[in-house]
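Morning, I've got a small favour to ask if you have a moment. I owe you a coffee for this, so here goes:

…
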Amino acid sequence: MSMIAGVYLWFSLPDNWLGESGILTRLAEHIYYVSLSLAIACAIALPLGVLLANYRKGAQVAIGLFNIGRALPSLGIVILAIMLIGYEASTVIIALVTVSIPPILTNTYVGIDQVDSSLKQAARSMGMCRWQMFIQLELPLAFPLIFSGFRSALVQLIATATIAAYAGFGGLGRFLIDGLGRNDTPQIIGGALVVSALAIVSEWVCSMIDTLMVRKWRANDVELSAT
């Protein structure tokens, strides 16, 4: 009971919310690390996944190489990046990008590759160019699987971004690292709860976006069928 009271007290103190070391600042730093890393990962993985799905040569090898990132511990990647680059913000970003590319790349490749070839042939027969076929056919059909990879990477990044604190940077991981250093259990639990809440909210938002996009494309399909 005292532990619950301690965590409640930690959240109730205004000093723990405001200032350079407050929850709001650390949350903003955490979101920045996650957003930047995810944007870079998408910029790499999405075009590469589409390219591999269309040309297929070396696809399995390329995906296998990128999936090595899943087998490597995130902390190990950070330590390696620190050894090569030093204590720079880029060390954390490199580690997070390395972790988040595999699920996006794999799901993009599989989603595009699994589109029925007969549908592609029908699209070509209708006079669609390659770009039109991708936008109007392949992307809507592959979107649920592609977005699933994005969601997986996002939730994983939210948890993994706590390693930024190990490299001496900010983010919600500071509550965990500093709490361990001070033997402050309420701070450790409080930081973990904030990370968990961010992951849950992010998953809920992604679920809403997924539902809305699927409904939009289905509505477009109905309109096209009616015409």
